[in-house]
Amino acid sequence: MTIRPATEQDIPAITAIYNEVVATSNAVWTEKPDTEADRLAWMTARRALGYPVLVATEGGIVTGYGTFGDFRAWPGYRYTVEHSVYIHADHRGRGLGRLIVGELISAATDLGKHVLIAGIDGDNQASIRLHAQMGFAEVARMPEVGRKFGRWLDLVFMQRLLDTPGASRP
Ligand SMILES: CC(C)(COP(=O)(O)OP(=O)(O)OC[C@H]1O[C@@H](n2cnc3c(N)ncnc32)[C@H](O)[C@@H]1OP(=O)(O)O)[C@@H](O)C(=O)NCCC(=O)NCCS
Question: What global pTM score does this model have?
Answer without folding.
Answer: 0.96
